[in-house]
Amino acid sequence: MKRERIRKVVLAYSGGLDTSVILKWLQDRYGCEVVTFTADIGQGKEVSPAKKKALLLGIKPKNIFIEDLREEFVRDFVFPMFRENAVYEGEYLLGTSIARPLISKHLIEIAKKTKADAISHGATGKGNDQVRFELGAYALMPDVRIIAPWREWDLLSRDRLLRYAQKHGIPVDFKRKKGGAPYSMDANLLHVSYEGGILEDPQYAPEESMWRMTVSPEKAPNRPEQVELEYRKGDVVAVNGRKLSPAKILFELNRLGGRHGIGRLDMVENRYVGMKSRGCYETPGGSIMLKAHRAIESITLDREVLALKDDLMPRYARMIYNGYWFSPERRLLQTLIDASQAPVNGRVQLRLFKGTVLVTGRASKDSLYDASVATFEDDKGAYNQADAAGFIRLNALRMRIAAKRGRK
User: What is the reported pTM?
Assistant: First the structure.
């Protein structure tokens, strides 16, 4: 394949082995200037060494971008997703999927700012992330050039990567040299994911030491903890009466949920590229938010509005999982979802206990719950029970006609 002339490329750079090798490989293969972009979306200590390693690999200080995107991540990506109660294939809360469009957005912004010719990422040719990064990039910059090294190079094993790193003086974490974690991890403020390595056997039960955000439910406190969330237009605005920013709310819910062993998941999912993949996930704060949001919606949304949202949810979740965050259909659907959240205001009480989240109360000034109608006691004429007979007969009409036909 003819090699493109690339003058400058923006690399989504974590500072880890793969993207450090990619950084050097881009310089060697394309003879180009490399700009690194590291997004802080709550993954923790991995962010700080990225600048030092980029400098060590010859990147100019002006070409190193490290941005704190935690608030934007939760406010503009996580919260809108949770307004729809999005769950992929019945279980996955989309922690990795929802981070990718944010990274694509800033990759493109930096590419425009630095007048780069292309962007690059470290996603493999087998996974979903290559699709998510690139669909997002094309939606925001239609003519962008994208370099995906895993689809071009021959460094297709860990040993080859290590040899390349050693040959070119690329610092390699000692654990990585010795074997390190027997799986691949991806972390952000919403979750941690684990896949690959020993987890590729669906029968293998992960060891307890793998989990980073949560304690084992068996080792969680023996006494439950009460938590109250306050909602405004479908978003959490306070935890236990404390008004907090979006990122701080999720951080606090992660702390609470992690302490009680909430949010662990082990599943086999269907990747967009066609294969099945086994992944383990920790989403403590997200698990609490999902339970609470459905609870506040249960008293503030009309029955058919709820039903419509539930009908649309799996399609919306697939849009995010498959990388279509910036698509016209997702944007259109988000407008509908956001409009539905106007009355979703109030408070939800929950009890956290050994891996479970139980709703214990909900209240809202916009509640549609009418105790005078719903009561099993004397409703003083608020509801005429005799009306139910005609309602039932009308709804049974088609079944009665079909039953009569079957007897003929």
Answer: 0.94
CATH code reported for the domain at 187-301+343-363: 3.90.1260.10
- Tokens matching residue 346: 């109030």
Q: Between β-strands 64-68 and 192-195, what pairing exists: parallel, antiparallel or unpaired?
A: unpaired
- Identified catalytic residue from 70, 83, 100, 278: 100
* For residue 1, pLDDT beyond 50: no
* Strand-pair partners of 265: 281
Nearest residue to 107 via CA among 81, 142, 141: 141
Helix (H) or strand (E) holding 347: strand 346-353
DSSP 74: I
**143 catalytic per annotation:** no
Residue 150's Cβ-count burial label (10 Å; 0-12, 13-18, 19+) is middle
Q: What is the pLDDT of residues 307-342, one digit of tens each?
A: 999 999 999 999 999 999 999 999 999 999 999 999
113: Cα within 13 Å, side-chain hemisphere: 14
100 is catalytic: yes
Q: Is 184 a catalytic residue?
A: yes
Query: Does 3.40.50.620 match the CATH number of domain 8-180?
Result: yes
**End-to-end CA distance of the chain, in Å?**
72
